[in-house]
Amino acid sequence: MNAPVKAQRIPAAAVRGFCADAMRKAGVPDADAARIAELMLEADLIGADAHGVFRLPQYVQRLKLGSTNPRPDIKVERSAPATALVHGDNGMGHLVVSRAAETAVELARECGVAWVGCVMSGHAGAAGVYAALPLKSDMIGMYSAVANANHMPLAGGAEPLLGTNPFAIAIPAGEEPPVVLDIATSIVSYGTIKNHRLQNMPLHDDWMIDPKTGEAITDPHESAHALLLPMAGYKGAGLALMLGLLAGTLNGALFGRDCVDFNAEPDRVTNTGQFVVALDPSRFQKLEQFKAEVDRHVRSLRNSKALPGESVRLPGDARAKRRNDRMANGLALPPELMKQLDALAAELAIAPLAGR
Q1: CB contact at 8 A, 172 and 311
Q2: Which of 9, 169, 227, 253 has its CA 20 to 30 A from that of 327?
Q3: 307: which residues sit within 8 A by CB, 6+ positions away?
Q4: Helix (H) / strand (E) containing 64
Q5: pLDDT in the model for residue 5
């Protein structure tokens, strides 16, 4: 029996350059291509492996088909002192949501808090990337989106009418890593399902069910017709519903039965909705005092008693460790993904990852 092929470590700079080159070849201007590549790489660095370079072939396909606009005219409509709506012109979601985060920070500097929605946006990758953008301005960030396909049922339902609508919140700290929670409202993200299918790995028996029988689906190649279960049962389904209404319906973006499947319908415009919230903690107490208190609580909680064989985990701890490791040692890309990216490189006539 042959030993399994190990994932190849690729330098972070090589991945960023590869993504940027692919975007340019697909018609994206240089500055936008660089920004998209930066945000895609960040997803990989923090461990959101199904939302970084993994998604590149899909993005390129949509740009080539014209279902994503490579040169959007993104506009910001300020609707009140602390609210705005970003019209994405069907551009790459990375550009639209990062503009929303920049706008939220600008408004929060004035008002203390800001809520910015997105309409006519697209798939933007990992939620935690965008919740963390306000951290650079010492602000708390929150982000949610209507996921780009419906895979979950309502509580007690047998139809896929809800997306895995993610929610992320990022809180700055002092000497400790920021506290960053990034969750899908499904038991796992659909990107995880796709990653398992790509690598031919079985699904856990509590992830997906057959909508006709309610029985568990563990074969990743049968996932297309299965239902992805919400986290915590009816609570996850209810949260996905509320976030979908806030990120989609509130902004004039698609939700529910109206959603376009990003995976199955690559030639259709998705009109994805998202929102970013920025909150200035210095409006409540001195910033350094707040960050010092976050540090104190984080250390106290991290050092609390653990279950036998376990360690206490806090949101953001593993993220920071992974980022440091991957920046220093590169990204471990599985051979199945490398084959796809090599094929994309040949298609676009750009240097393959291994040659960078």
Answers
A1: no
A2: 169
A3: none
A4: helix 56-65
A5: 56
CA triple 147-50-302, angle to 5 deg: 95
- Residue 142 phi/psi, 5° resolution? -135, 145
A 10 A CB-CB count for 328 gives 9
CA distance 7 to 335: 6
* Amino acid 7: pLDDT: 73
Position 210 in a domain: yes
Nearest to 41 by CA among 10, 7, 15, 8: 15
Query: Do strands 272-279 and 140-145 pair parallel, antiparallel, or not at all (unpaired)?
Result: antiparallel
Same domain as 34, residue 138: no
> 109 with 169, same domain?
yes
Which residue type is seen at 150? N
Provide the residue range defining the domain that includes 333.
Answer: 1-65+316-356
- What is the number of domains present in the chain? 3
Q: Tell me, what DSSP letter sits at residue 273?
A: E
Give ∠ CA 142-148-150 in degrees, rounded to 5. Answer: 110
Asked if residues 165 and 185 have their Cβ atoms less than 8 Å apart, the reply is: yes
Q: What is the mean pLDDT of each run of 10 residues along the chain (356 residues)?
A: 63 98 98 98 95 96 98 98 98 98 98 98 97 98 96 95 97 97 93 87 95 95 93 97 98 98 95 98 98 98 96 93 96 94 98 93
310 found inside a domain: no
**3-state DSSP helix/strand/coil percent for the chain, to nearest 5?**
45, 20, 40
Q: Which helix (H) or strand (E) holds 108?
A: helix 93-111
pLDDT at 192: 86
- Assigned domain for 308 exists: no
- What CA–CA distance (Å, rounded) separates 25 from 27? 5
295, two tokens: 């540090």
- Provide the token pair at 39: 């945000």
| Burial group, residue 1, by CB count within 10 angstroms (0-12, 13-18, 19+) | exposed
